[in-house]
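User: My collaborator sent over this chain with a note saying "see what the structure looks like." That's all I know about it. Can you take a look?
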Amino acid sequence: MTEDYIKAVAVIKGVAEAPRKAAIVASLVRNRTVEDALVILENTPRHAAQPVKKAIQSAKANLLEKGSIDSTSIILSKISVTAGARMRRYKPASRGRALPFEKVSSNILIEVVGKKKVKKADANKQQPANKESK
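Assistant: Without extra context I'll predict from the sequence alone. Here is the result:
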């Protein structure tokens, strides 16, 4: 990336969703603009769409805090879903047994890139400072 771009990151850990299911939702919005991604996630009927949407909104807010950014040029440059912590639990079964199972979670990492706003030069500053009087 050149100096005209600024990037920001947002990480959400411990989302109560299987990584495989959250990765399907993440692949829907990969390499899109933030506005398009939010519209897609708004209309996606999957449980994992809500945490991914919140992570994108958080990354966008982090980027806008860094400096003057053109909000229409914000792009999702990286989105990844990895396995989070697993909690081991037991479910009661017949004849006094206990059957083990794991509650899975996932970690969502979002990286957004935005273009800096171009500052317009003031007309007053462009005038030469050493004017000769006649």
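A starting point for your reply to your collaborator: DSSP finds four helices and five strands in the chain.
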